[in-house]
User: What shape does this take?
Amino acid sequence: MRRGTWLLLFAIGCAGSQSVLDPAGPPNRSLNHLFWAMLIVASVIWIAVVVAAFWAALSRRRITREDLEPIITVPNEEHRRHTGIVTGLVGATIVILLLFLVYDFTVGRALAERPSRTLTIEIIGHQWWWEVHYVDPDPSKIVVDANELHIPAGEPVQVKLSSRDVIHSFWVPNLIGKRDLIPGYTSSLFLNADRAGVYRAQCAEFCGTEHAKMALPVVVHSRNDFAAWLSEARAPAAVPNDSSARDGRQVFLAGPCSSCHAITGEPAYGTVGPNLTHLASRKTLGAGTLPNTRGNLGGWVVDPQSIKPGVRMPSNQLAAKDLRNLLDYLQTLK
Ligand code: CUA
Assistant: This one.
């Protein structure tokens, strides 16, 4: 693995491995039980078949015409025994397949079942980033964020998925299987994590040149921590006290930044790029591309094309002082 990848996983603080076989919630756990049951039963059958094939090949009993004659004409005792074995094994195959069919349907139904009370989060796929809305009946409480998903542990969360451009696919290996994000169509799934931690989600459908750099850290909080996080996230951005950050705010609002990016509470309403209200509290930049450090942020603002070639964000030639002030400002956006 490249050094950058290690640094990134460290920056995200992933809990364990990004693996389907390391379930962190009930949906993936039931899928794992189904997978292991199928794997174990299929392995036992496969081993039995291979052993039988070797035994038949090695027993080297030559079959003569006299051996076959009575079978063709009158079935003898040995023939009846063999027929019994074959019939039994065919029956066993049918029973095993039926049992797995029922088990598979049961797991599928449980995954699709609508829990009684859920938090709803909308995720909109873009080339190549994730827009995340924490829905609330009170419009003033809706939180718009990007490139990071926060959910409470021990509580099902409904995730509604759609896309603004091409087909993407939402996949959190530790929590749930893949689900496509399709333009003009909203699909939905229920996420349920039972242990707090950070899990890495990844776009799992080729969606253009930067498909590989379309990751999404999923932060699972304890219930209380999540409530605290959500109420903090509802707060709009404040005008900074620091003079350089205030100058940086002017650079942001007067320059091209605000035509593509929104900051809640500021006259910046762009929706082409990610909402930046909570940029400084994110773990990564460029949808899981770089750890979110001041140096990386500066490099990203000046020349995103060299970091994520093809990304919609253009290069920005800023005077050194403006860049410093802008970074001071962006780092206040907690
Ligand atoms: Cu989005 Cu691949």
